[in-house]
Amino acid sequence: GVEVGPQPQGVVRADILDKMRKIIKHGLDFVQLFNEGKEFPPCTIEVFKIMEKVDYPRNKNDEVIAIIHPKLQDQDWQPLNNGDPLFLTLDGEVIAYKGDCTVYPTFINEAAYYEKKQAFVKTVKVKLTAKHIRSSV
């Protein structure tokens, strides 16, 4: 499967659909070239590895007591450093990120994840290296 977003549930966006089509085309082009016996050289790519799901701050009754801070909203895949604002309580208090490394939040304030108690997901950048590959055909 391919998921390209973000976009609200039940909404079809032309720009997102176009990106999805391009990704699928590249994937099919790769399969075609591989099946024709093309050799692909070694490569390294940077990816985001999920580290932790982060819930909204809650009180002892399990009620949400803070919302996503405006400076974090719509900042998926952008670096989040120690001290950067994460949440804003309903009475205006800023709750900052306390971490020992830079993370890259994603799925920030996604409606589909409210019921899963997920405000966002923390990811880190990692590099993956692939050896050369070639079809045995």
TrEMBL record:
Domain AstE/AspA barrel-sandwich hybrid: residue ranges: 44-123
Gene3D superfamilies: Zn peptidases (3.40.630.10)
Gene Ontology molecular functions: hydrolase activity, acting on carbon-nitrogen (but not peptide) bonds, in linear amides
Pfam families in alphabetical order: AstE_AspA_hybrid
InterPro entries, sorted: AspA/AstE_fam, Aste_AspA_hybrid_dom
Cross-referenced SUPFAM superfamilies: Zn-dependent exopeptidases
A Gene Ontology term for the protein's cellular component: cytosol
Name the UniProt record assigns to this protein: ACY2 Aspartoacylase
UniProt lineage: Eukaryota, Metazoa, Chordata, Craniata, Vertebrata
